[in-house]
DNA sequence: CTGAAAGCGCTAACAC
DNA sequence: GTGTTAGCGCTTTCAG
């Protein structure tokens, strides 16, 4: 491995000068710069980022902690986060906790502040309180996509307006004439996605649909679980004309369940999801859903984390990205005539 | 940040002893161990992995370079690789090249041998020759899932037997009576997936189906591209009774295309994919496919990389994981009677 | 504008 | 068993 010292020797200067050439070339005489750069090229010198990190007292690595990357939302998020990080000269360490708080803690304990200068923590089973302690010790932690975290200036949270997102779904179904509506409440890591559901129920209530008219079934956040839950819910409540799922995976499972019990989507049953993962438009019928601005969330989370690393104080506790938008595709339609109230 | 020296001072020993307690406790007197551990606990000491890496001359980080993590095969792979790495005390840096060789080179240049002790390089647009040069410089590079790389002892490759995988698909369709067969040839990063196709065509040839009877259409490796390609192929060749896609995404697109032009799958058209991503069984109709042993591939690639980092020489150039297996689901059926030859 | 020197936090010989 | 010492490769004052 070629070191700074070797480059320095070859260019007839000291290591300090080489370092300057590489970092603040304007502070060095042009002819020297040229000589040093020549040596760098000839020797094929590449800075040792580990040594640099030690000397600077901070690494150029960010960690992204998530519960399970095989949930398709995360790869989409990782892609955006990695791109944002790369643009600012940072690398991204992926920490998959496998829904296991012990793994999450072990990761945090090992990397926060040493291997990774900052950590973006997606919804996990580690409590925000515990994370706040770690943040207190000086690590740049940023929560992301937590549905109900008590964000503080020391532990800010980047998220979307889940209530609003749920409300958009409600408004859409209401306007299509649906009144007998079921809901699948997802339970990912970090607890149930109940804010989304609350937003949904409240928006219906505001339109005169009683909250207890919404039949809710809880399940894990996956296609398979959504399938099972929808089957159960639809057999208990055969008159439902629409189903809201707090995330797209469950909505897709619900569509499959409907097909298997002979209900056509959207003619007999409308289904709407939340998130707008790629699969939502790739699946058939293409899923109507409320889209999250994934790229924006990721890049804000990355930017906020880097700002904290670099000592820039956050201006707010929570960063709500409000741009959830309704994406109408092929799984929602007007409520069947027979069931309409008005 | 609490340092070794502070722990040492508190425990009335030197830094070297603390280091020993943490790394080779059996070499230290039990009472000392206890005293040191107490100090560690009281101070909340956590080793600085950057400093350790610099001192040891190597990091405990692996990089995984892939073209685009939003292709659902990769998250599944990342999950397995990360788990395997974690078990051996390594962290995983995800390097997404966005199908851009310049990004790949930049990553390699920056991290190989400095930030990451080893790099697993998935199929990319950077040539194996170029990678071999980098490997020569001493970085632990391991190729993974390359379809046609000239693996060497200095640059080994972990992969599956693509020919065999293609052959399994061919045998299945043949046994169902299909003779008019189309193929979608995927073009991911790193070139066309032609070994899979060759295996498919050769296996058919071995059964007496002429190679030029297989109508091939090339396209990108995605659901959308598979959809377009299948539509085009099926309209050119309306008598096809079966379609082989060199990967599952394209197969899923093909199923959607068939539906849109009024062909029922599998009654009118059988479709078989390759890889067995999660989506293959989540999709409806559930996709018949040839499965890759993703977990095995990932863990072998990780193990091989770590072995190289730790100085253990690879025994072979190429590691072919031969366990591709046929997974029969709902998209393949006997060829329609009208079209059967025998 | 460049060089000298100290030090980031830890490890690893080698003494004692 | 434990301490001493010398780095790992780089950055960063501070002199000159």
TrEMBL record, chains A, B:
It comes from the Bacteria. Pfam families: LacI (PF00356), Peripla_BP_3 (PF13377). One of its GO terms (molecular function) is DNA-binding transcription factor activity. InterPro entries: HTH_LacI, LacI/GalR-like_sensor, Lambda_DNA-bd_dom_sf, Peripla_BP_I. Residues 2-56 form the HTH lacI-type domain. Keywords: DNA-binding, Transcription, Transcription regulation. This is Transcriptional regulator, LacI family. It comes from Paraburkholderia phenazinium. The lineage of its organism: Bacteria, Pseudomonadati, Pseudomonadota, Betaproteobacteria, Burkholderiales.
């Amino acid at each position: 491995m070629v070191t700074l010292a070797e480059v320095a020797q070859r260019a007839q200067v000291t290591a300090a000068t080489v370092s300057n050439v590489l970092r603040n070339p304007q502070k060095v005489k042009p002819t020297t710069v040229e000589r040093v750069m020549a040596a760098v090229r000839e020797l094929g010198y590449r800075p040792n980022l580990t040594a640099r990190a030690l000397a600077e007292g901070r690494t150029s690595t960010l960690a992204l902690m998530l519960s399970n990357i095989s949930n398709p939302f995360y790869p989409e998020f990782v892609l955006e986060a990695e791109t944002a990080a790369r643009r600012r000269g940072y690398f991204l360490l992926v920490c998959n906790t496998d829904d296991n708080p012990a793994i999450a803690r072990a990761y945090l304990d090992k990397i926060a502040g040493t291997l990774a200068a900052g950590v973006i923590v997606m919804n996990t089973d580690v409590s925000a309180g515990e994370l706040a302690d770690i943040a207190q010790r000086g690590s740049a932690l940023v929560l992301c996509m937590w549905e109900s975290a008590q964000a503080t200036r020391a532990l800010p949270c980047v998220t979307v307006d889940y209530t609003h997102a749920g409300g958009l779904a409600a408004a859409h179904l209401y306007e299509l004439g649906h009144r007998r509506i079921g809901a699948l409440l997802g339970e990912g890591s970090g607890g149930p996605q109940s804010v989304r559901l609350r937003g949904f129920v409240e928006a219906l209530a505001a339109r005169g649909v009683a909250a207890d008219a919404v039949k809710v079934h809880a399940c894990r956040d996956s296609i398979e679980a959504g399938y099972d839950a929808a089957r159960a819910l639809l057999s208990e409540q055969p008159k439902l004309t629409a189903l809201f799922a707090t995330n797209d995976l469950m909505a897709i499972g619900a569509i499959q369940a409907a097909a298997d019990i002979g209900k056509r989507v959207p003619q007999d049953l409308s289904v709407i999801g939340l998130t707008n993962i790629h699969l939502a438009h790739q699946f058939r019928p293409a899923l109507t859903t409320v889209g999250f601005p994934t790229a924006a969330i990721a890049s804000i989370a990355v930017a906020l984390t880097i700002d904290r690393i670099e000592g820039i104080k956050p201006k707010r506790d929570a960063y709500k990205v409000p741009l959830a938008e309704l994406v109408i595709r092929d799984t929602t339609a007007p409520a069947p005539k027979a069931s309409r109230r008005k």
